[in-house]
Design goal:
The chain is an alpha/beta fold. 43% of the residues lie in helices and 16% in strands.
Length: 377
């Protein structure tokens, strides 16, 4: 089976890229010939990478040019299946790892000013992405859509007329050996000492880049409203406006309890040293970070617009709240900060993702690919 996976930018920090990395190894172990088509990547590419980097100026030209070049590669017929992680009309399989742009804009508009909503409607880039998304879902070559959560499947049905038989829910796979509750034994004492958190201080860890979409401002506001003023917060991820969030923390009077740690290649030490995980995101199709935290035994606080909420049982493996509701988030933070509560949820958190191994994910993907290829063969 000759399979191409399309992703514009390949870095070690993004959730989609970590999915590709895990899927790549697992699929190759099961005999698939996999090529990654990308515009650029971090580090030295291996033999399975195909560079596709046409000249561009601005992100609309960039995305349109990349899509056209990939469409040219598809037309050569060198691959049995082309699975795109970008909205490219003509791909055989679309992995909706970023959800739907239509749903993201609808949710974002609720939190924007009138001027902000006008900009969303007029933005050339948003208009291009919406058009490409709609064309892709209509395209006759689209044979399957991998929905990384039930929420994503429902969003696609809500916004687009897609045959339900094409929609397949396949959660991301994680390395259940690498992400394990034993990370606490390896990292808790050392990392807490480095970051100034005593062993009895409740620590919440957040992992994700793009602080505006993922709710860091709400987290800061909620921290200021907590009854328990001891809790520390570790923010792992990249954002070009990080200084703005540091200023928000100072203004809210919680700067001494927040640590902005930047992007990290390995988040396991921070997961192992924390008590619980929090992702107050406005929109998140699934989030590998939540899956990894649960696998490490951390109860997770997520929003109703995060696909990972499907795996969280309130009161057993974490809590769920409406995005932007700082008071509700503060209440959940206080519950998990109470001595012994987070530790009592460790087994349930781990059990929530016990079936989501990388080999299991690869098996589901291969079953889908074989099903798609069976009529042709």
């Amino acid at each position: 089976m000759k399979l191409a996976l399309v992703r514009q930018t390949y870095t070690p920090f993004g959730g989609a890229e970590r999915f590709v990395e895990r899927a790549l190894g697992a699929l190759r172990e099961q005999g698939a010939d996999v090529t990654i088509i990308a515009r650029r990547w971090s580090g030295e590419p291996g033999p399975g990478f195909l560079r596709c980097d046409p000249f561009f100026m601005g992100r609309t030209w960039r995305d349109r040019g990349f899509a056209r070049r990939v469409q040219g590669i598809i037309a050569t017929g060198r691959f049995d299946l082309v699975q795109s992680h970008e909205r490219i009309p003509g791909c055989n399989v679309f992995r909706a790892g970023d959800g739907t742009h239509a749903q993201w804009l609808a949710l974002r508009a609720r939190h924007e000013s009138a001027l902000g909503r006008l900009w969303l409607r007029l933005s050339p880039w948003h208009r291009y992405i919406l058009g490409a998304e709609a064309e892709m879902f209509r395209h006759p070559e689209l044979r399957a859509v991998i929905c990384i959560s039930r929420m994503v499947k429902e969003d696609i049905v809500r916004h687009y007329d897609v045959d339900a038989a094409k929609l397949h829910v396949i959660y991301n796979g994680i390395d259940l050996n690498e992400f394990h509750p034993s990370a606490a034994d390896r990292h808790r004492t050392e990392v807490r000492a480095q970051l100034g958190a005593a062993d009895d201080v409740p620590v919440f860890v957040y992992v994700g880049s793009g602080f505006a979409r993922k709710g860091v401002a709400t987290l800061i506001e909620a921290a200021a409203r907590m009854r328990d003023g001891r809790a520390h917060f570790w923010v792992v991820g990249r954002d070009k406006n990080e200084g703005r969030y540091r200023a928000l923390a100072r203004k809210a009077g919680v700067a001494d309890r927040f640590r902005f740690l930047g992007p990290q290649r390995d988040v396991r030490p921070f997961l192992g040293a924390a008590d619980a995980f929090v992702l107050p995101t406005l929109y998140e199709p699934l989030s590998n970070a939540v899956l990894e935290a649960l696998a490490c035994g951390l109860p997770a606080i997520v929003t109703t617009t995060c696909g990972a909420a499907e795996l969280v049982t309130p009161g057993r493996s974490g809590y769920i709240f409406d995005a932007g509701k700082a008071d509700a988030l503060a209440g959940h933070l206080d519950r998990l900060a109470f001595p012994g509560v987070a530790a009592g949820m460790r087994d349930a958190a781990r059990a929530a993702v016990a079936d989501l191994s990388a080999p299991a994910m690869a098996g589901r993907l291969l079953d889908l690919y074989r099903e798609l290829l069976a009529p042709a063969s």
